[in-house]
Amino acid sequence: MTTSLLKIEFSLPPADYDDAVVYLSGAIQHGWEESQAVDGTTHFSTYLENHDAGHEVARRIKELWPDSGIRTEESESQDWGQSWREFFTPIECGGRFEILPPWLSDEGHDNLTPIIIEPKMAFGTGHHPTTALCLSCLADLFRNGHLSKDMEFLDLGTGSGILGIGLAKLGLKGLGLDIDPQAIACADENARINNVEESFRVAVGGINAVPEGKTFKALVANILSKPLIFMAADIVRRIEPGGCLALSGILVEQAPDVIRAYVLLGLPEPELRVSGDWCALLWTSLPDIARS
Questions:
Q1: In what helix (H) or strand (E) does residue 275 lie, and over which residues does it extend?
Q2: Which of 197, 179, 199 is nearest to 188 (CA)?
Q3: CA diameter of the chain
Q4: What is the pLDDT, as a whole number, of residue 77?
Q5: Beta-strand pair 239-251/216-222
Q6: Which end of the chain is more exposed for a tag (fewer CB within 10 A), N or C?
Q7: Of 226, 261, 10, 198, whose CA–CA distance to 269 is shortest?
Q8: Residue 115 in contact with residue 165, Cβ under 8 Å?
Q9: Distance CA 239, CA 245 (A)
Q10: Do the Cβ atoms of 239 and 223 come closer than 8 Å?
Q11: DSSP for 219-255, written as a single string
């Protein structure tokens, strides 16, 4: 299927690179292409299907970095999947997983567990730093015996389903929830592509879609700091005693506020995992108080 895409390109010096990645990570969930010049300047480019949203992103980039040379170009009748092939690269996570698109599914490394993700304009492909961070946390939890086969999990805000698929490929069984019906359609498709649809089911809804009293051995939520704070009480009471909790989508500077919300509910201080400006919070062997 063809569609009209909006291509956005701009360039920034090394001093602005980190700030640009933080902005793009929040504004463009499916990723972008980077190339570096000899002088360290980074050239960014991406495609957006929603032209109104794309022009707003371009406007904001021009506002933040007036000298970036921002330019947009409409690409009529261009296939999104074909466009994405230009810069989708496999991603290794935690020494356990490898995120691949369908057209590279036969080119993965034998020592890594493949997660096949069909690129979609609106949903993550794993290029966001927090996705790799979460998958690395899950790999370590499994490696260290905190997660094991047949445990039940909840993937809250599942998006493309990438984290739930990873857990299912470790042998766990669980549920992926998202308030966006299109995300659930995407996650369902990816579950089928990865042959885990029997162990990873998905449904439209938020944390309150989980029946009262239902608990999980592991809960992962890669969302944003404010929703994680708002849902803190609902999240912790749905984790079994001795279970694990992994939260991400959090800027490092926001971590203290998120940690405070969960510690006030009786949780201990979490382990902090950092990747650039982003972080994940990790709890293992949660006490009984997490259910109260």
A1: strand 271-275
A2: 197
A3: 58
A4: 45
A5: parallel
A6: N
A7: 261
A8: yes
A9: 8
A10: no
A11: EEEES-HHHHHHTHHHHHTTEEEEEEEEEEEEEGGGH
- Sign of torsion, CA 47 50 51 57? negative
Answer left, alpha or beta for residue 208, where phi above 0 means left and psi between -120 and 50 means alpha: alpha
**pLDDT tens digits, 244-253:** 999 998 889 8
pLDDT of residue 287: 82
Q: Which two tokens stand for residue 89?
A: 């690269």
| Cβ within 8 Å of residue 265, ≥6 positions away | 232, 233, 236, 289, 290
- Quick one: 63 exposed, middle or buried, by C-beta within 10 A (0-12, 13-18, 19+)? exposed
290 pLDDT tier (thresholds 50, 70, 90)? very low
∠ CA 149-192-126, nearest 5°, is: 80
Q: Tokens at residue 100, please?
A: 């691949």
Amino acid present at 17:
Y
CB burial class (10 A; 0-12, 13-18, 19+) of residue 122? Answer: middle
Single pTM value for the model = 0.73
**Domains of the chain by range and CATH?**
3-79 (3.30.70.120), 128-291 (3.40.50.150)
At 219-271, the pLDDT tens digits run 999 988 888 999 999 999 999 999 999 999 888 989 999 999 999 999 999 99
**Is pLDDT larger for residue 291 or for residue 242?**
242
